[in-house]
């Protein structure tokens, strides 16, 4: 029992002194390249250093391609307030592809952009017609 108390006290001192970090319950996941495939960028560390690397080229520039250099992953994001039922398809040149449905300024899950090209296409209805806007690749 004395040994257990010594270990617990020692561990407490290390934690208090900042030498041992306690795991955070809300810590975001880190991924790299293909381990990011299908993950939500908002629940990872990837969103922290993300930047827009390409924009849509349609009559309405609705899409952005977001890229995280630390994760080497990409995802699509609607710049417009997309109506319910809209979708984003994110894909890469290795054939990996995901479709995310939503509304508003939503974003897709991620796809690896490590040593490959990625791009995103958004589809939404406006005034009774289908609209599509695709980004260039990055």
UniProtKB/TrEMBL annotation:
Q: Which UniProt keywords apply?
A: Signal
| Signal sequence segment | 1-27
Write down the InterPro entries for this protein, in alphabetical order. Answer: DUF2690 (IPR021224)
Report if keyword Signal is assigned.
yes
Pfam families hit by this protein: DUF2690
Protein known as: DUF2690 domain-containing protein
